[in-house]
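Table S7 (text form). Paired inputs.
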Amino acid sequence: MKTALLDGVTPAKIDKQIIGNLLLDVASVADVRQEKLLIGVRNEAGQIYRLIGAPKANNYTNAVEELEDLGLVDELQDTEDPQEGCDAIFSAP
């Protein structure tokens, strides 16, 4: 899976734990957006600061489970429709 920080947006305090729990390759935002499934992560200000791109459904499912294990909540868990270009958007409750 690939990940990128969005320019000019402050990372969440939990970001080091996210990076530690998921096996992610740092890539450009453009490269991450080319992946099949996208996960956004919001900071405390409510801005998406990190994108995670998953090439396959099982990678996506594993990433979602890891983020949930960290106590993050998927805002889109009750909808099938992507929002803000993401299939899932995680933030701290």
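Next pair, protein 2 of 2.
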Amino acid sequence: MFLARLFRSRRVRLTAAAAVPLLAMSALAAVTVPPAAAAPGCSVTYSAPSQWDGGFTANVSVTNIGDAVDGWTLTWSFGAGQQVTQAWNAQVSQSGSQVTARNVSYNAAIPTGGKVEFGFNGSSSGTDNPSPTAFTLNGTLCTGDVGPTTTTTTTTTTTTTGVPPGGTLPSSFRWSSSGALISPKPDAAHPNVYSVKDPSVVYHNGKYHVFASVYTTGYNLMYTSFTDWSQAASAPQYYLDRTPVGGGYKAAPHVFYFAPQRLWYLVYQTGSNASYSTTADISNPSSWSAPKNFYANGMPQIIRDNIGKGYWVDFWMVCDDAKCYLFSSDDNGHLYRSETTLAQFPNGFTNTVIALQDSNPNRLFEASNVYKVAGKNQWLLIVEAIGSDGRRWFRTWTSSAITGPWSPLAAEESNPFARANNVTFPNGQWTRDISHGEMIRAGVDQTMEIDLCRLRFLYQGMDPNAGGDYNQLPWKLGLLTQTNSTC
């Protein structure tokens, strides 16, 4: 926010290992085969270009030498107890030594002769990290040969390892909250820190990486990381005004890995524009670049025409396999959406439209999140509201497309997505506000995928008795865990 306002108001807010080619002969496994002829065949190259005591980074390249594939699952086994800890460009799960990698929305199709690549970080026992010896693609053992053409329809039992993402979105939600996990931490350069708020979080390389707004004499950004939530309170906090991100007004961060460029993006508001910084190393806070703006001409006209006395806040980026979409709010009952192509990103945002609106600004206030439900043709939108009691809470909608239309799911105070009345506090109710937050995603990339079997939401809350100037309210961060999963 440009000026201090009362509680209702808002801030303007890796010794290299040789690459091991692994080929595989196409044998017909027990699968459901379509009636059209299909000649399966594939080859896989696996490498671990970065290894250290206890961990490694691996790259996997799959070449389709058979008929075109639309949707793929790659499986293999580790021989020395390795565990995948974080993946990109694929959904990866593991059961014992068996690993299953599935396509994400933008790389499902592999034409004949085409290639798909993904990577992951893993843990190992010391430096014992032998490469896998066999890979299977959609039930076909990859040896670099093309198998026999299939011309009949057969349905038999499959024994592939792992299961597709499960669960469904319930019609009502129940949550359990931690206590306050992350609180303000003053230092010599920031002696008075009133709040930590507006969190963004990813789990990468065995750590949670959290970015948040902090309010001192103005708004700026903070970074912290830890391996377990029990360490969150004691983890050091790094103020990003010490970096090329710079001083001055910065707020409401949103972090993700843009896989096509192999860069991390940190999106935030600067008062008059949606801005971003980039880095190749999320764990090094000093490596973020200086801010750049998404909108070359500033606030789009449609927002100027509808913002009224509100503020342009809370930018959220999400991409499908063709476009990237930038969402924002105006504290005046409007949710906006701009778009650009995946190839043009981060440039070219245009075609700004009102994606959702409400005549009561309190019911569609700010802090929108848009997620892809893993394994389903479904998107989830959540938006923060101000309740009839003045407390913050979240409403939610679903759609089969990022562009809508959006259908209400849990969108009323009596049936909220997250509000004090559907959250329990086993260690005592430290907040009655469930405010600006973000899901812990199933991955880190621009598709913003979430796993319905493990919904967790990092949010801001505060002492229920606090009041006064919104900017100086004592916001802290807590974690919600869904207690009524359908999985």
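The first helix runs from residue 301 to 306.
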